[in-house]
Amino acid sequence: MTPKKKRLPLTVIGGFLGAGKTTLLNRWLREANGLRMAVLVNDFGALNIDAGLIAATHGDTTALTNGCVCCQIGDDLGRALVDVIEAKTPFDAVVIEASGVSDPWRIAQIGMAAPELSLEGVIVLVDASAVAQQSADPLLADTLVRQLKSADLVVVNKADLASAEALAGARAWVGATAPGTPCIETTESAVPLALLSGLPHADVAPHVCGHDCHNHHGHDNPDHGSLFQTWSAQPETVIPAATLRAWLREVPPGVLRLKGLLRTGDGEWSEVQFAGRHGSLRKAAPPADDTRPGVVAIGLRGQLPEEALKEFFAP
Ligand SMILES: Nc1nc2c(ncn2[C@@H]2O[C@H](COP(=O)(O)OP(=O)(O)OP(=O)(O)O)[C@@H](O)[C@H]2O)c(=O)[nH]1
Q: Which among 13, 19, 49, 153 is most buried, taking Cβ atoms within 10 Å?
C-alpha cells in the first residue's frame, strides 16, 4: 500500500490584544520536542515585537509585517505558507499567530486554500481578567465577538488574575457568544500541544460549530485596521528597570496594549509588557543578531496618548 502524502496540519491562534497568544506559542515550541513547527507571527504595528520574543528562544519564526494579517497581507501570508510547504527539511506542523485585532477565521481560510495544508483548528484566547470591560466597550465588542465566533476551541486565559466572579462572567460571555464551542480555563496559556490533534478538522466539515457558517463567521466589518492605531519607537538609550516599572504602574489612559524589548542597563535587556491593566518587566537575553530595541503601543484610533508615549520612550 502506498502511504498517503500527509498534509501539514495548520493551527491558527487568535484572541484579543494581550490575551496570551505568544505565551501559548512559546509553550508549544518548548513542548515540541523534536517536532518541527513553523511559526508565522503577525503583529499589529510597525515593529514585530512578538517575532523577536519568540525568535529569541526558537528558530523557524517568520514575521509577517504590515499590520493585520487577515485583511492587509494575504499575499505575504500566502508566500510565507508556500515557503513552509516547500521547505527542504519538511515541517511537522504550522502555527499562525493572528494579531490581536484580527479575525482568525479569515486567516484560516487563506490557509485552507492550500491543498497541502489541513486546518487543525482555530484556538481563540480570552483574557478572563479583562473581557468584561473589553466586551462592554462598544468600540471593541465587535472585534472580540468576531474572534470568538471563529473559534473551534476557546481558551479563557489569565484565570490567576480573575476573581471567581470575573471567571464566571467570562464563562457566561463565551457561552452566550459562541454557544456549543468547547471552552477551557487556563493560566499562562497552559494548553497542551497534544490537544491539537483532538480539534475538529475543517477539511472534513468546514467548521464544526452548529451554526450557519456564513453568518457564524460574519465579516461584515473587517475594517478594524482603521479602528485601532499603533505607535512605536526604537529607543537607543538605556531606560532603567526601576523607571520602567514606575511608568508601568501608571500607564497613561488610552493604551490598550504595549510591548517591547528594551535596553535597561549596560548589556542588559528587558521585555516590557502591558495588557488588560497589568504591566510587567522581566529580564530578557540580549538578542543574538543586530535587533534594535523597540516598543509598540496599541489603542483605539484617536485615543492613543502619543505625546506621553513619545515623552517617555523617545524624548
Ligand atoms: N498573570 C498572567 N499573565 C499572563 C498569562 N498569560 C499571559 N500573561 C502575560 O500577559 C502578557 C501578554 O501575553 P502575550 O502572550 O504576549 O499576549 P498576546 O495575546 O500574544 O498579545 P498580542 O500579541 O499583543 O495580542 C505577557 O506579559 C504574558 O506574560 C496568565 O495566564 N496570567
A: 19
Nearest CA to ligand 1 atom 2: 158
ipTM reported for the complex surpasses 0.90: yes
Pocket lining: 277 vs ligand 1, CB cutoff 6 Å: no
Best mutation site among 13, 16, 22, 70 for ligand 1, i.e. most ligand atoms within 8 A of its Cβ?
22
Distance 28 CA to ligand 1 centre (A): 15
Q: List b or e across 94-133, with b for residues whose CB sees 16 or more CB atoms inside 10 angstroms.
A: bbbbbbbbbbbbbbbbbbeebeebbbbbbbbbbbbbbbbe
User: Rounded to the nearest 10 degrees, how much is the dihedral formed by the CA atoms of 245, 246, 252, 253?
Assistant: 80
C-alpha cell at 64: 509577517
Q: Which atom of ligand 1 is nearest to the CA of 125?
A: 19
pLDDT in tens, 107-123: 888 877 888 888 878 99
Please give the CATH number for the structural domain made up of 227-313: 3.30.1220.10
Which superfamily does 8-224 belong to?
P-loop containing nucleotide triphosphate hydrolases (3.40.50.300)
Digit-coded pLDDT (tens) for 48-67: 555 555 544 444 555 554 44
Distance CA 315, CA 309 (A): 9
Domain spans, the chain: 8-224, 227-313
Residue nearest (by alpha carbon) to ligand 1 atom 29: 23
pTM value surpassing 0.80 = no
